[in-house]
Structure formats: structure tokens, C-alpha cells
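Protocol step 6 of 9: fold each sequence in the batch and record its C-alpha cells directly after the sequence line. For illustration, a two-sequence batch is reproduced in full.

Sequence one:
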Amino acid sequence: MVKCNKCSKEAVVKLHYNKTDLCGNCFCDQFENRVKNANKEFKLIELNQKIAVGISGGKDSAAMLYILHKIVEKVHGTTLQPILIDEGILGYRNEAIKKAQALCEKLGLELKVFSYRDGFKLTMDEIMDLKKANPKAGFERSCTYCGVFRKTLLNKAALEMKADTLAIGHNLDDIAQTFLMNMFHNEPERLKRFDVINDEVEGFVPRIKPLIYNPEKEVALYCELKRLPYFRGECPYSNESFRGEIKNFLNNLEQKFPGVKFNLLRAYLSMRGELQKAVEFDKMFPNNGKKKGNNGKNGNKQELENSQKIAEMIVNAGSFSIAKQKDADLQTTGKPTSTITKCKNCGQNSSTQLCKACSFVIEIGRKKMETEGQNRAIGGKQKKSIKKFD
């Protein structure tokens, strides 16, 4: 029998990254302490707050909600409001909602559900059906649409509830994956905005990530040991995601070199200060010295020069290099991505005249009309050929 390194009871898990064997109770204590440590280090939860908790019915949000509920019981005046985004994926989200509802009932909390159908007049199943019907139309990957719609709707829901913060179930693996994805895509703007707790910006509810120190596999084990209800299925469209490739890559590395994911987290956290300097630079010089109305070739050239100046500043601060600013919205609107304005369609915060969610809705609507037009044309040709045959 393998004994727990802390209490000598029978161990149920071996943590290879720190060569530790733990029993169920000691493992759960360590898991919860990591959440408490994240709270203390980053001041995630404060007195008299209303915290919107984004849950999905999966393991990460189940563990997060359960532990936050235990913590908040001891924090004066602070309350939790679970919210769930229904993307409209039959056989997946409708089943996960049942698990989320069961957990909320167990904790005595009321679950509020917001759907793509109500928010955007479409569902992910409908988008994917259109993509299959017209594969040459240039549809984005499913996760590209879903990520934008989900973030937008979560923020709208949290604003509607007048929440002070929005808790999301990003675990250690998610942080490491996102860090690498932003590096591989050369997207410094996204990396600057990505944080354990986001700065307060009018129109955006700050997000907190309580599970930052907890690996994904340990989240699943915690849920099993605590017998928390959660949905075990995977999104049927996840095979399209770049994140999935990064996830497999990191899992293979972790298996060969235990501790890689924690090392990536430490690397990211060590860069937070330098990234914040870049954010402060953007606040001081929101237009990066560019004159208004200069949207032509000279404007794009000036934008690249300004981006290079920012890059040099970050490099000199000891962070990382930025080859160029390649944001498509910046190129077409002439506005830097750090400038916050209001979407002219929905009124939500945006870095361009139309927020990404509204742009996608319009784009999908246009492609839907094109697909329906092609289908009508094909149907008409088939009818004519049948008449000729007769």
C-alpha cells in the first residue's frame, strides 16, 4: 500500500511534478488551499461583492463554484450568482445544463441561463449546419465564433446583474495553453489583456480565475472525490480548435517532463509586470501619436512604426519581442486595439465601430443568405432538368 506523504493513510493519487502521494482528504485540502492562495495573492474576493460565476456544467466550473461557495460563506456581504451560457448544441449543452442545475440546487443557489438564441438570434448548431452546407463560404472555426459569442454574452449577463466581478473556471492547463497560443500567434495585445484578474474598465466586468494553480486532471479528481455533479462529455465541435492541438502538445510534454505546465505559469506570472507597463503605455498614448482621419497606406505604415516603438519598449523592459501589429480590425479602421469605444450596433465596448460579436452575426447572416440563394438556384436547375427529361 502506498501511503500518503502527509498523514500516512492510503494514497489515491501520485503527483509526479512534485513526487507526492496523497490520500483523498489531503489532496482535497491541497486543492482548496491553492484556490485560497490565489485569492490571497491576487485579491480575487473582497467584502460586500456580488460575484457572477460562469458555469458550464463541466468539471472546472463545478469545482470552482463549490469552493467559492465555501469561501464566500466566511466573507461578509459577498454573494454568488451562477450564470450559464447556452450555445445551442444539442446533446451537449442541454445535458450539461442538467448537471449545473443539480449542483446549484445542492448549494442553494439560483442558476440563470443566457442563450445564443436570445442574445444573437442563432445557435452553434445552426452555424455549423450552414458551414457544412456551404464549406467554401469561408466560415471561421467553430471555436472562433463560440469564443467571441460566449465572452460577449457572459459580460452582458454580468453587467445586467450588476456584478462586481465575473469568476471563470480557467485552470492551470488553460492558462498555460492560452499563454502559448498568444505567443505562437504573435498576439501581444491579447496577452496584455489576459490576466488572473482584469483591470476595471467601464463596460467590462473584471474577470477572476480562482483555479489558476490547479491542473485539469486534479480538477476532475477533486470533483470525483467530492461527488460533485458534472457533465463528462466534450463539445462535438472541439476537434476544430487550435487550442486542442496546444493541449495535446502540452500534455505530451508534461508526461515526459513533469512540471512543464507549472513552469509556463511561473513564466507568465513573472512577465505580468512588464505586460502591465505596456498597458499603461497604451493608456498614456491611446492613439500612439497618430493623427485622426489618417486611414490610408501612410496611416497603416505609421501604425506599424508605432507598434514597433511599443515593441522596443517591451523588449527593453525584459519581456518579449513583437514583430508587427497584425490585427485586421486595426488595419481596416485605423484604430489601435487598445482604444475602447462603443459598438454602433449593440452598444457594448469595442475597439472598432462594430464589436467582434456583431461583426460575426452580420457575416453569418450574409453567408446564410448566400447559401440559401445557392440552394434555390440548384433546386431550380434540378426542376428544369426533370421537365426536359419528361
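Sequence two, same batch, same settings:
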Amino acid sequence: MPSGRGGCQKPVDSKKEELAADAAVGAIALAFLRNRVCVPRDMSAGAAVALETTIDAMLSSIY
């Protein structure tokens, strides 16, 4: 049986919950990175602003 109760596939709701959990973990990691970037140790000021702007755009597309 390729799917259904006897199959190895997860129910649709479980997959949606797993994707939502993955998105939440990714958002947390991106927010942490955005908040912890250190200038000038990690990168130049301009690069840090560009990174923070890009991360904000990615976070707004997730949520």
C-alpha cells in the first residue's frame, strides 16, 4: 500500500504542521543572526545593513 493508513506517508495535517514548525525554526535562526551581527568584527557596516534588510524581507515573507 503506497499511501493511506498502511503506508509510510504522513497525514496531510501532520506534514503541514511539520512545515510550519520548520518555518518557525528558520525564522528564529534568521532573527537571531540579524540581532547578533557584529560590526566591524563580522563584516562592514554597509554589508551588515544589507544583511539585516535582506533578513527582514525574508522574515516578512515567512510571516
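Proceed to step 7 once all outputs are recorded. Observation for sequence two: Residues 12-36 form the longest helix (25 residues).
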